[in-house]
Amino acid sequence: AGYNHDVQAILNYKSQWQSIPSPYKTAAGSFDMKFDKKKVDKGFWAGGANFFSDKAGDAQMRTTQANVSLAYHVRMSRYATLGTGLQGGFVQRSINASALQWGNQYDGMAYDPTLATGETGGLISKAYLDFGGGLLYNYNNTAGERNVTDNHDMKVCIGASAFHVNQPKYSFYQGGNEKLFMKFVVHGNALVSLKNSNVGLAPGFFYYRQGPAQEIYAG
User: Fold this and answer.
1) Interatomic CA distance for residues 204 and 219, integer angstroms
2) How far is CA 204 from CA 150, 155, 156, in A?
3) pLDDT in tens, 15-72
4) Own/partner pairs for 66-72, CB < 8 Å, 24+ apart?
5) Fewer C-beta within 10 Å: the chain N or C terminus?
6) Burial (CB count within 10 angstroms: exposed 0-12, middle 13-18, buried 19+), residue 42
7) Which has the closest alpha carbon to 24: 16, 13, 14, 12?
């Protein structure tokens, strides 16, 4: 929050697999800003808010989350800052179990919707709190927009964060002990001008780890 611009707003929307009866729909947005821009020579506070809404499948499994963030960036030198931030939010998950088909409803020959499911029916809803935090190092030797033509620009950003640190219970079942794994993220990107040319390099990477799953981007 606040490291990249004085004020920043982002909005995303995705509608996936339109050919199926119940397309997956996802919307997300965020807003963040610096609070005390006049004191940036020593450090500055920043904050923001973001939301996420997702609906998937015939059972309309829905996840809605809203978070607020607070960060402080210490100025380490003329061009470098080190920031730390905290995030907290509220999550609501729901699923329409009555729209699903279960193994108990197959009579050995065909599906029979009149047979008992053996499951809890109707709308199942669950809510929980979610918390995270992280660190961010940022180096930027130019106050202007991205520009490599003056042969000396260098921008470097490296961060690490942890999400779901309270590991909230995730199961729809009463008494279920399934918890949401903590999610760890390490990321970095840069923009480096090459001397005596109008060319710059822009490397970047993301590494995600959550329970037994991981994902890596590099480019």
Assistant:
1) 6
2) 22, 11, 10
3) 988 888 888 999 999 999 999 766 667 889 999 999 999 999 888 899 999 999 999 9
4) 66/90, 67/130, 69/1, 69/32, 70/1, 70/45, 70/46, 71/1, 71/2, 71/3, 71/45, 71/46, 71/47, 71/136, 72/43, 72/44, 72/45, 72/46
5) C
6) exposed
7) 16
